[in-house]
């Protein structure tokens, strides 16, 4: 008996030694691409602003504008794109649970009823006879099976663990993408809101200019009516007034367009957006960190999402490699099985099955290698897309920071220009107060100042827009809890 046991063990080892080398071999693993170098994640030394630092989580509250706070909170709660992002997060979590469930014990209740006529010429031919004394009641039988079936995959090579890790990576990426959508929505709302506020102030300046133009038309009309001057000056004044009124109409139309864009972004109905009251534009509060380096990767939710997608691709590579190795599973059944329903729940009809299984890939026509090659190339593509996204992020910060520098300088010069033009206006006003010139000349002297104030307002609006863009480029206060380390495999 012992000789037979040793012989059986020898045959088993010999069989494994023969079969295992015959499993499919990895031929197309490929070469992983590398992550972007740290020195490429930085700014030029000549780009700097008056303030240093990163944005706060609720960065928009620094403007101390209750209207803006309410609009952004409404958008983050109701915007369709925000709802879509949250749904994608929930979907990814369900995918993780689904993949993880596949590695757990599976159990199901089984029951079947089979009414069969046995063939007399088949391998069950004797059962086609009707000889009750021999236990044969053919040719018709009603077979019943009822019980519990279970199966368990043994994850020896980590394939299932890698698939779960890949699903977790996608889930984490979706969470970061939701933060990126929040940042996109909040910055878009702020940009539209301050576009409306800038246009409100533009209309105020244009109305002031229109008052001067209306008085000029009346004055020239009176003079022309008395024959004191040619009608040409009247028509020139009227043309100037009409031009100003055209700008007012265009500005009012722009407010309507901006408001509709804001309403669609917030996800409000026709009456779901509160009236936006004019407020003064806030002063510049833009800040730029001294260095970016890897800190930018943790601060930008879109980059963090791409890092998680890359990390998930590495786990898919691990799963593709594990598919080359043998897979083990165990199946089991406990229940009752009988050819006659009357005997189904008797002790003699009990059935127990315990089936360990081994699946060894030997020849697959290149399917496993093609799958591994495809997964590797997909991972490399994600790495290159990520590297390009990092470069684009650094470019965005650099371009926005340098633009803000230039706008700050332009604003300083424009303020000096207004002071110079205002001096001429004040001089004419003083002459008018002393009776040395007429009221028309005093009012028309205001027009150049108003024009320069419009130019300054335009610069201030651009500064706000670029400041918000810089906040977006720096991640808007987002901070990853645990930065992902890319380690290609």
UniProtKB/TrEMBL annotation:
<keyword id="KW-0812">Transmembrane</keyword>
<dbReference type="GO" id="GO:0005886">
    <property type="term" value="C:plasma membrane"/>
</dbReference>
<keyword id="KW-1134">Transmembrane beta strand</keyword>
<dbReference type="InterPro" id="IPR003423">
    <property type="entry name" value="OMP_efflux"/>
</dbReference>
<dbReference type="InterPro" id="IPR010131">
    <property type="entry name" value="MdtP/NodT-like"/>
</dbReference>
<keyword id="KW-0564">Palmitate</keyword>
<keyword id="KW-0732">Signal</keyword>
<dbReference type="GO" id="GO:0015562">
    <property type="term" value="F:efflux transmembrane transporter activity"/>
</dbReference>
<keyword id="KW-0449">Lipoprotein</keyword>
<protein>
    <submittedName>
        <fullName>MdtP family multidrug efflux transporter outer membrane subunit</fullName>
    </submittedName>
</protein>
<feature type="signal peptide">
    <location>
        <begin position="1"/>
        <end position="24"/>
    </location>
</feature>
<dbReference type="Pfam" id="PF02321">
    <property type="entry name" value="OEP"/>
</dbReference>
<keyword id="KW-0472">Membrane</keyword>
<comment type="similarity">
    <text>Belongs to the outer membrane factor (OMF) (TC 1.B.17) family.</text>
</comment>
């Amino acid at each position: 008996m012992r000789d037979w046991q040793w012989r059986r063990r020898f045959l088993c080892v010999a069989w494994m030694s023969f079969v295992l080398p015959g499993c499919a071999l990895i031929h197309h693993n490929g070469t992983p691409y590398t992550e972007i170098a740290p020195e490429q994640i930085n700014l030029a030394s000549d780009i700097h602003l008056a303030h240093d630092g990163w944005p706060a989580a609720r960065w928009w509250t620094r403007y101390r504008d209750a209207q803006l706070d309410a609009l952004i909170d409404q958008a983050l709660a109701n915007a369709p794109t925000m709802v879509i992002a949250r749904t994608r997060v929930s979907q990814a979590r369900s995918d993780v649970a689904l993949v993880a469930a596949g590695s757990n014990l599976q159990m199901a209740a089984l029951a079947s009823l089979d009414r069969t006529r046995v063939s007399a010429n088949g391998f069950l031919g004797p059962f086609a006879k009707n000889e009750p004394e021999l236990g044969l009641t053919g040719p018709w039988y009603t077979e019943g099976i009822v019980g519990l079936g279970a199966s368990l995959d043994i994850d020896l090579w980590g394939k299932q663990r890698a698939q779960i890790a890949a699903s977790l990576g996608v889930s984490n990426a979706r969470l970061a993408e939701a933060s990126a959508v929040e940042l996109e929505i909040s910055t878009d709302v702020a940009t539209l809101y301050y576009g409306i506020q800038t246009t409100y102030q533009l209309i105020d300046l244009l109305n002031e200019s229109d008052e001067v133009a209306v008085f000029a038309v009346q004055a020239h009309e009176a003079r022309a009516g008395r024959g004191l001057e040619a009608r040409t000056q009247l028509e020139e004044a009227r043309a100037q007034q009409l031009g100003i009124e055209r700008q007012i109409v265009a500005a009012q139309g722009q407010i309507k367009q901006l408001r509709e864009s804001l309403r669609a972004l917030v996800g409000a109905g026709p009456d779901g957006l509160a009236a936006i009251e004019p407020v003064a534009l806030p002063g510049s509060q833009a800040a730029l960190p001294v260095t970016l380096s890897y800190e930018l990767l943790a601060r930008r939710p879109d980059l963090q999402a791409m890092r998680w997608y890359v990390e998930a691709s590495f786990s898919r590579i691990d799963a593709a490699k594990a598919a080359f190795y043998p897979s083990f599973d165990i199946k089991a059944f406990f229940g009752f099985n009988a050819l006659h329903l009357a005997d189904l729940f008797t002790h003699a009809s009990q059935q127990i099955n315990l089936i360990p299984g081994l699946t060894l890939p030997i020849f697959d026509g290149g399917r496993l290698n093609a799958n591994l090659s495809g997964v590797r190339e997909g991972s490399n593509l994600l790495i290159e897309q990520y590297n390009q996204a990092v470069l684009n992020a650094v470019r965005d910060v650099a371009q926005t920071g340098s633009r803000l520098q230039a706008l700050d300088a332009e604003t300083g010069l424009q303020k000096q220009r207004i002071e110079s033009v205002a001096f001429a206006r004040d001089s004419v006003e003083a002459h008018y107060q002393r009776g040395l010139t007429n009221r028309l000349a005093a009012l028309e002297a205001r027009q150049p100042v108003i024009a320069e104030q419009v130019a300054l307002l335009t610069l201030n609006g651009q500064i706000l827009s670029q400041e918000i863009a810089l906040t977006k480029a720096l991640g808007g206060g987002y901070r990853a809890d645990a930065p992902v380390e890319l380690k290609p495999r």
